[in-house]
Write a structure and sequence with these properties.
By secondary structure, the chain is an alpha+beta fold. It is built from 8 helices and 11 strands. The longest helix has 55 residues. 29% of the residues are buried.
Length: 394
């Protein structure tokens, strides 16, 4: 029907032109962004899956970086252990030298002076070697390395000081060790507060003749060895500005033990009330001077012979921990490889979901351009149709 009021052909052409223009705009958006999914209206389900995959990829990549940082931490400790290795070799050489009758006690005294300096250097190296304020040679802390959203690899530090290795110390400070050990220093309930009658538990530590520390354990509450160490050190820092408590790891029993040490040349003792309110007995503690009866020495022939035997154990302890650092590095390197492969595979999956197929979209772009151009031409033709009716009115 020829009409001048409603141009139906123009309306139809405009509608099709709008659809072609929208399709052209979508093709341009996809090719310019490189993404098939730019908003949820493009593919709601695909968008949801893509964002979950992206989050997993980010976690895996960060886990890989965590493992790499842990490797750096282990390498720092292992490098220090190489220095301790050389020091122990020299100490054993000195012990062998002092064990022979070719030297006098005066000469052995000179050897012992070097021996003790080397022992002090071992302690200094262990106490100062750290990575981002994390110490693997001067603590018994457990460091959890996250290598995924839920997976961890635990790094358990050990005491590699002269005292921790079994070489003793250069002073005569007394210490008390808790004979009872825990397989995990974070095991809650190792020490229990209270006597069952509503009274709080109490541990009294006396340093020298005057300084006394009182650590209170709340009735009915369980405490781990790490918590006990922190509670004692909080008190000792307040009284004497030093940490009196530490944890000692026994590699033979795989247990952790509490150790409380007096300041240099000082004494320490545990005092008990009439009622045991901590779940620990006095017989659970052993008091000694220094470490294993004092510092290992080569000042006499007998001491040198004994030192030779002790150093065999010390070197074995050191080697075991150094080997531990090595296989932990190997494990973390394997974890890095696995995490990188997982991230790469997920990235490939995310690409298939989200990225645009350039070849397909380029063909669609060409088609949409032709349709848009055709639509514009037809709309122009349709707009001239009402003018044909005017010829009938003249």
């Amino acid at each position: 029907m020829l009409a001048i009021k409603n141009n139906l052909m123009a309306e139809n052409a405009a509608r099709h032109l709008g659809r072609s223009y929208d399709a052209l705009a979508k093709s341009v958006e996809r090719l310019s962004s490189g993404l098939r999914i730019n908003s949820s209206k493009d593919d709601a389900a695909g968008l949801a899956v893509r964002e979950l995959v992206r989050a997993d990829i980010a976690v895996l990549k960060q886990g890989s970086r965590n493992a790499a940082d842990a490797i750096s931490m282990l390498q720092t400790a292992e490098g220090a252990m190489a220095v301790v290795d050389e020091l122990l070799v020299r100490m054993r050489e000195l012990a062998e030298q002092a064990a022979t009758d070719s030297y006098s006690d005066t000469q052995r005294g000179i050897m012992d002076a070097e021996f003790q300096q080397l022992a002090s250097e071992i302690t200094r190296v262990a106490e100062t070697t750290g990575f981002n304020e994390r110490f693997l040679l001067n603590s018994t802390s457990t460091y959890n390395i996250h290598v995924g959203s839920t997976d961890t690899i635990d790094l358990v530090a050990e005491e590699m000081t002269a005292t921790g290795l079994g070489l003793g110390n250069t002073g005569s400070a007394e210490r008390i060790d808790l004979n009872v050990g825990a397989p995990n220093p974070n095991l809650t309930g190792f020490v229990t507060g209270g006597d069952g009658a509503g009274n709080d538990g109490e541990l009294d530590l006396t340093f020298g003749a005057e300084n006394q520390l009182v650590v209170t354990f709340t009735n009915g509450t369980g405490y781990s060895l790490n918590q006990v160490v922190q509670m004692i050190n909080a008190e000792s820092q307040t009284e004497s500005t030093y940490n009196a408590a530490s944890l000692v790891y026994n590699s033979e029993t795989n247990l952790y033990h509490l150790r409380v040490t007096a300041e240099a040349n000082g004494d320490v003792a545990i005092n008990w009330g009439a009622t045991d309110q901590t779940g620990l007995e006095q017989t659970d503690f052993t008091a000694t001077n220094g470490a294993d009866g004092g510092a290992v020495s080569v000042g006499s022939k007998a001491d040198a012979v004994s030192a030779l035997s002790t150093l065999v154990t010390v070197i074995s302890t050191k080697d075991s921990y150094r080997a531990k650092l090595g296989y932990l590095m190997n494990r973390l390197e394997a974890a890095v490889d696995i995490l990188d492969i997982q991230a790469e595979n997920l990235l490939s999956a995310e690409s298939r979901i989200s990225d645009v197929d350039v070849a397909t979209e380029s063909a669609a772009l060409t088609r949409n351009q032709v349709l848009a151009q055709s639509g514009i031409s037809m709309l122009a033709q349709a707009n001239t149709m009402p003018q044909m009716a005017l010829t009938l009115l003249t």
